[in-house]
Amino acid sequence: MWMTVGTRRFAITLADTEAAREFAAMLPLSIDMPDLNSNEKHAELRKPLPTNAIRPGTIRNGDLMLYGSRTLVVFYKTFDSAYSYTRLGRADNPAGLAQALGTGSVRIEFSKN
Fold first, then answer.
1. Is residue 67 within 8 Å of residue 85, measured between CB atoms?
2. DSSP string for the chain
3. What string of pLDDT tens digits covers the 113 residues of the chain?
4. Residue 23 phi/psi, 5° resolution?
5. Beta carbons within 10 angstroms of residue 5's beta carbon
6. pTM reported for the whole predicted model
7. Residues 108 and 79 sit within 8 Å (Cβ to Cβ)
């Protein structure tokens, strides 16, 4: 799967979860994602996905997660968190992701190819 931000394209390896499979079935998806806490972009999906939330402890730059059943989250910094998420996938090489996403709202395209 691919995540495109402006002219930058990031390969995403999907997790082996029902939520990730259902997310992939929604593609292509272009969505405006505002910034939250200067470490993530988030947006509500049009339909809920199945959840299997865990507390990962450490969130990593490039993690693609689901908060609750409808909030898609792209993390662009590594930090510790007590929140629970359902893992959707991860950027294979997140170098430059924070710069591509910037500090405000950004449109992100998710696609299969």
1. yes
2. -EEEETTEEEEEEEPSSHHHHHHHHT-SEEEEE-EETTTEEEEE-SS------B--SEE-TTEEEEETTTEEEEE-S-EE----BEEEEEES--TTHHHHH-SS-EEEEEE--
3. 999 999 999 999 999 999 999 999 999 999 999 999 999 999 999 999 999 999 989 999 999 999 999 999 999 999 999 999 999 999 999 999 999 999 999 999 999 98
4. -65, -45
5. 21
6. 0.94
7. no
Look at residue 89 in the predicted model and tell me its pLDDT. Answer: 97
Amino acid (one-letter) located at 29: L
- Locate tokens 């593609």: which residue? 27
Residue type, 93: N
Distance CA 11, CA 69 (A): 23
The residue with tokens 């910034």 is: 35
Angle formed at CA 109 by CA 108 and CA 113, multiple of 5 degrees: 150
